[in-house]
Amino acid sequence: MVSSSSNQPEPSSDLALREIPGSYGVPFFGAIKDRYDYFYNQGKDEFFRTKIQKYNSTVIRTNMPPGPFISSNSKVVAVLDSKSFTILFDNSKVEKKDILDGTYMPNLNFFGGYRPCAFLDTEETDHHALKSLYLSFLASSHKKFIPYLRTSLAEMFEIMENEIASDKTSDFNTNSDNMAFEFVFKLVTGVSPSETKIKAKGPSTVNTWIALQLAPLGTAGLKFVPNFIDDIIHTVRLPFFVIKSGYKKLYSAIYDSSASLLDEAEKSGIKREEACHNLVFLAGFNAFGGMKVLFPTIIKWIGSSGETLYKRLAEEIRSVVKEEGDVTFSALEKMTLLKSVVYEALRIEPPVPFQYAKAREDLVIESHDSKFEIKKGETIFGYQPFATKDPKVFDNPEEFIADRFVGDGEKLLRYVYWSNARETDSPTADNKQCPAKDLVVLCSRMMLVELFLRYDTFTAEIGQLALGTSIKITSFTKAT
Ligand code: HEM
């Protein structure tokens, strides 16, 4: 097993040992009170900020939603700074079994009765087998990334231009979902979804399937719905049967067209059926689910930065592409501003903001100013935006600074954690870092390359959704 040496320091420093402050309140009602504060009275950021101030600590005890009646134990130790957060990456000290969604696990019916790789701990043999399969599949697909992305992105922007011409507006989220699904499905299966029985239904099927699993972690966000009604989604699990037939179609579309990947899985001892349910999870939840949140977030932050940044990005991208003759891996490497902008978006608004794990043994962790003891079996929860906006690590952490990671700023990449590890670490079969870490960064860069090769500027209306940002593009100005 690999335990990343760059993570938590050995607790030998002279920081004072402090009891973890905070409270779980009275049984049952304490968890409900925290849930109301978190969703309705305060909101996520204020919920944690208030506790940090109250206890003068970035490591605190609290309940995390959903609580009753979905999770039987909502008690966590929250790690809310850049330093203590890294305990979550040390697989020798923490277990990541059935904890992807936090203090509850969706019904296994959502995954064909199997536990997908993301729910497996590093000590489970299936984790090693599946993660190795994914890593070698991604490595061998390398040459397809840029051409597939260029095709999917070009199609997306053409559709959006037509929508703006006819309706004066184009929904970026819908188009980005379609583009991401097309790209991921083709990468995994080798064929376009339109050539299978899933046709154009992929994104809506997967959206419903994800929403049913994650409903207990969000709110409908409808102003006219009273809180106590909205709160019902935090008390009962939503059933799988709603999406059963859609899931079956998706499963058989992937089963029919991923023969070589499924053969590989069988060779490494994974049953064909289990491997295929894993591929559905990989393509639908991990890949599509992540991109669904990330791409609109990137557009939001670039869009809010304004025309000076557009101009600088367009100049950099166009001049490097001209110099290199095409969009290639080496061309992308030379685009220093572009690279920094993507990392900055991943830092300021990490697409998967919550990480959980359980202590394998009694542990000592460190924040910037104290040491704390965590007992074996306790759940540790990290709210990533507080770690990657830690003022002790990043200057003006709430500000989107396009050049933050240029030149000497690259040293700060080790404090960017979006992939469930440091940006300077690499995914392996023995850790829990996203195996597509580099692919995700590539996709993000490619989206901006395509955008600024085609257009000088764009205008957008930005809003908030239950899962991420909503973007409506209202104009594109063609490249001059
Ligand atoms: C924007 C897109 C993506 C984001 C934001 C993202 C983020 C993440 C994060 C945060 C984790 C760790 C979850 C945890 O344990 O707490 C993770 C794990 C994982 N991701 Fe990604 N991911 C993305 C795309 C992808 C893609 C494209 C693939 C595959 C093609 C993928 C496959 C996986 C797998 C299999 C795991 C589980 C790793 C393990 O169990 O060791 N992800 N991802």
TrEMBL record:
Coiled-coil residue spans: none
Pfam families: p450
Chain residues that bind heme: C434
A Gene Ontology molecular function term of the record: oxidoreductase activity, acting on paired donors, with incorporation or reduction of molecular oxygen
GO BP: any one term: fatty acid metabolic process
Domain of life the protein comes from: Eukaryota
The keyword Ribonucleoprotein is annotated on this UniProt entry: no
Keywords: Heme, Iron, Lyase, Metal-binding
Cofactors demanded by this protein: heme
Keyword Heme: yes
Stored PANTHER family: ALLENE OXIDE SYNTHASE 2, CYTOCHROME P450 26
Name by which UniProt lists this protein: Cytochrome P450
Species: Artemisia annua
